UniProtKB/TrEMBL annotation:
Keyword Signal: no
Alphabetical list of InterPro entries matching this protein: Carboh/pur_kinase_PfkB_CS, PfkB_dom, Ribokinase-like
Organism field: Actinospica acidithermotolerans
Keywords: Kinase, Transferase
TM segment ranges: none
Domain (Carbohydrate kinase PfkB) ranges: 49-286
Origin: domain of life: Bacteria
This protein's name: Adenosine kinase
Keyword ATP-binding: no
Amino acid sequence: MGCEIDVLVLGGAGVDTVVRVPELPLPYADSYLIDPGIVTRAGQSGDFVALGLGALGLRTHHVDLIGDDPEGELVRALHRHRGIPLTAVASARGTKRAVNLVGPDGRRLSLYDATRAGDGDPLPEATVRALAAASRHAHVVITQPFAGALPALRESGVTLSTDLHDWDGISSYHEPFALAADVVFLSTTALSAPERTMRSIAARGRARIVVATAGAEGALLLADGELTHVPAAVPPGPVVDTNGAGDAFAAGFLFGWLSGDDPRRCASYGAVAGAYACTVPATRADAVSREVLLAACG
């Protein structure tokens, strides 16, 4: 079939209801007046990675389980509007959804609807194999049932990446993703010893590169056994929301990696993309352009 797709993104399609709160943690009260308003929009981890890659000029295709519900239509509309092909496998559980509480400093608390996640809906292996056969690379979001797709993806010969988000380095749920991917992203948020965890991922799995993001403190990059610190990029505007910053970092990094750039430059791309994402209000889904990214990195 040939490589018609640069990056196949698997999983992570959904809808967030964004609520601006006066502070986090939010003190108990009978009620709060929310200004500016409460907004529901499409965009979860896989959506943000797909949007980021598409904005950087990569041919991107997204596949996930989507319900026949209002949330599913929001996801479909987002992809139509951004020109990102979407393979929507029918889900009886419904489209994934969450509530994001966003503080004045841009920090976020996410409440995920667990009734719309799990192993109940099958993912046709034939669909995964057909899409993988047309792809250069696959980015797998750690939502189910995509752990089950990892063997077929590996057999297809595509390179793999994944984002473990706030993994604590212990939970067994994340391990299939961590050990199957060639490029692994994660956050330092829940790690007591980031370097140890990163080296363990590389030693036990297939990862050639492991990146641990640390927000305003930058990121740690493990490549070819060498650990280096990558400084955070200066945001091009006020920081209003950190939602999607890690997904943007992954998109920027993969843009460089698939272009053949060295890992340090890839991480610089990721830092710039992540910083840009922090300036985008939670009520919008947006990503840095290729022109802006290249100009910022020199």
